Amino acid sequence: MEGNGKPPVLVVLQLSGGNDFMNTVVPYTNPAYHDARPLVRVKEEEALAIDDTLAFHPSAAPLKDLYDRGTVAVVQGVGYPNSSRSHFRAMDIMHTCEPVALGTEGWVGRAIRELDPKKENVLTGVNLGRGLPRAMSVPGVPVTSVGNLDSYGLLTGISEERQREEALDTFKSMYSPAIGSGPVMEYLAQTGMDVLTGADQLKAAPATYESDVEYAGNAIAGSLRDVARVHTAGLGTRIFYVQHGGYDTHANEMPDHPVLLSDLSGAIMDFMQDLRDHDASDEVAILVFTEFGRRMRDNGTGTDHGSGGGAFVIGDRVAGGLYAEYPPLAPEQWLNGEDLRHTYDFRGLYSTVLEQWLSLEAAPIVNGQFEQIRPFVEAA
C-alpha cells in the first residue's frame, strides 16, 4: 500500500502484561460494567465519550484526540478460542499464531522474510528495547535489536563482549524451555553477526535527526523517539517493534493504569507529530496489541487475567472508528462466568495489516485464513 510513493512501514507496539481493555475503551454507561467493578472502574462523568456507550479512559486523552482526528481504529474484542491466562503462553500464541501447538517462528519474522527474502538489509526488522520478542524470531532471518540508540548494544543496550554473551544466555534461557534449545541456538548462530552489523549501522540515525517535539522521559516515549530517529534516517526499516510493560494490574490498578495510559497515549501523540513534521507519517501505521484482557469483576484493587481484549491501528492513513464488536457485558454472556468473550480473532487483525498495509500474503504468516477488517484509507 503506497500512498506517497514510500514503502509502507509498520510499528508493532506490544503492551506487556495484559492491558485492561475494558478500562481503556470503557462501556461507561453500561450498568453491568459498574456492577462488576465497584472499585476498579472509570466513573461515567470522567470518561471521554466516543458515543453514548463507549468512552476512552480520561488518562488516554491524547489517544482520544487522535481518534477525534480520524486516525485511530479501535479493534474490539480481540482474542482467540480457549484463551490462555498464562502470560508466557498467551504472548507466545500472539507471537507465533499457534494457539494449540508450540510455534517456533514469529509472525513478524516471517513477514520480514517476505519483505527481504534475499536478506539484503539487516535493518528490515528492528526491535527497539530490551530483549528480542518471539514475534521476530525466525531462524535465518536477521533482526537488529538495540536497547536504545544512545547506549546501544545487542539485545540489552550494552556493548562489551562479555555482557553481550550474558544477554544471549538470558535469551536462550527464556526461550529454550518452550521451543527447545535447538531452534534457539540455530537462530542465534545464523543471525548473531547480522545483528551486530545492524546495530553498528544504527549509529548513524541519531546524528541526522532533528526535531521540535519534546518527548516525555518515560520508556515508551524513548522507544518511539528512537523509531522516529531510525525511520527518518532512511535506513530501509520496514517493521519496528517496541514494548511497553507494566500492564499486569492485579493490584494498584487505579493509580498505576492511568499512568501507563498517559505515558502510552502521550508518546503516540508525540511520535505522530514528529513523523508529520518530517513529512514521514503517511507511510507509517502503528499496531498496538496486548496478550489478553482482564477479568470482568475487579478483585478489590485490580483485575486478574482474562480474555476478550482489544487493539488499536493508528496512522494518518487509517480510517478511524470502531471495528469488530465490543464483547457482550451481560453476566449471563460472560465466558466461564467471569470473562469477556472474544469477538474477533487476532489473526484476522494481523492478516489485515499484512495484506492491506504491507501487501503480503497473510495466510502463510498467520497459519490460515481469518476475517479481515478494513481500517485503511485507500490510496488516491
Approximate helicity band: 25-40%
Q: Specify the CATH class.
A: Alpha Beta
Q: How would you spell out the order of helices and strands?
A: EEHEEHEHHEEHHHHEHEEEEHH
Q: Work out the helix count.
A: 11
Number of strands: 12
Total individual domains:
1
CATH architecture: 3-Layer(aba) Sandwich
Mean model confidence by pLDDT? 89
**Any idea what the radius of gyration is?**
20 Å
* Largest sheet descriptor: 9 strands, mixed
Provide the β-strand percentage band. 5-15%
**CATH fold naming:** Alkaline Phosphatase, subunit A
Distance between the termini: 11 Å
Q: Structural class of the helices, strands and pairings? A: alpha/beta
The shape, in one word, is globular
Low-pLDDT stretches are: 153-160
Draw up the topology in text:
Blueprint: E1 9-15, E2 25-26, H1 31-36, E3 48-49, E4 55-56, H2 61-68, E5 72-79, H3 87-96, H4 107-115, E6 125-128, E7 144-146, H5 161-179, H6 181-201, H7 204-208, H8 219-232, E8 239-244, H9 253-277, E9 284-290, E10 309-314, E11 321-323, E12 344-345, H10 346-357, H11 363-366
Parallel strand pairs: 1-8, 1-9, 5-11, 5-12, 6-7, 6-8
Antiparallel strand pairs: 2-4, 3-4, 5-10, 9-10
